[in-house]
Design brief:
five-stranded mixed sheet, 185 residues, 4 helices, alpha/beta, 29% helix, Alpha-Beta Plaits, 5 strands
Length: 185
Amino acid sequence: MTASSPFRSLRSRRRDPLLRPHRDERGVAFPSPVVMLSIIAVAMAGFAFVATADDEPTERRITTASAPAVTETPTPEPVVPTTPAPTKKPKPQVKRGEVYVEVFNNSGIPGLAAGTAAKATQVGWQVVGEDNWMGSIPASTVYYPPRLRAAAKLLALDLGIQRTMPAVDPMKMDRLTIVLTADAA
């Protein structure tokens, strides 16, 4: 290696004490962030413990009630209980707007289902569909699932339909079904 090599000058600086920066042993070594966060967490936990510490529980003496002194009382005459008059069960109120109604035309008269659906809607029933019915029905009928029997009677009264019957398959069991024949025209 030649004297002009950059490595040689670097080596010579290391050996030469005048060219090296001066180091002293004084200085502060900062702890890592994890250690700092741990110290802060311990300090906060100690503060929270002191701030939320309750007072010493106080002891209380519990006394029991003593039995009252026995005194003689005259015996009352026996009272015959009266039975209240039987009350009628209140009929469940039918809320027309909460009952679904489907209207079917089985008459061959165009628009009969739509006209009846419009009447039912005006009275307050919630009509959810109208269509044609295939099959033979003897008279206009309101079909009902067991839980909607009272509603079926009210709907039949509102529309002037004389016949109500329990629903059959393929009718939906969550609504009233009206099947109209030529007598409804």
